[in-house]
Design a protein that fits this description.
Blueprint (H helix, E strand, L loop, with lengths): L1 H30 L5 H29 L3 H32 L10
Length: 110
């Protein structure tokens, strides 16, 4: 039971950090005057719940199979998918900007 309670403490610390970072992202939107505050809050809650579920599933899989390499495998899958999606959506945006004759140079950061 000591090992289980220590593991739960680690889970709660990780979840707090996920909630904290999502909340800070939402506050950054507020400070920068961005719109869609409700969407940012909904995304923060969704990220918190999804990370909790993912953490529980990965912990259960590690206990069942006894291999921590599942974490490396799942992270590599997520990185691959995000790389493909970011490249695809970026290429689509560049193509639509090119066809519409929009300026495609650097935008101001502020």
């Amino acid at each position: 039971d000591v090992e289980r309670s220590r593991g739960l403490g680690d889970v709660y610390k990780r979840q707090f950090m996920v909630l904290f970072s999502a909340t800070m992202s939402g506050l950054q939107y507020l400070l920068l005057g961005m719109e869609h505050v409700q969407a940012a809050l909904v995304l923060a809650i969704m990220c918190f719940v999804a990370s909790l579920l993912g953490l529980l599933v990965v912990q259960r899989a590690i206990r069942k199979y006894g291999r921590a390499s599942i974490i490396v495998f799942s992270v590599s899958i997520v990185m691959f998918i995000s790389n493909v999606l970011m490249t695809s959506f970026g290429a689509i945006k560049v193509w639509t900007d090119y066809e519409s004759g929009e300026y495609m140079g650097f935008k101001l950061p502020c």
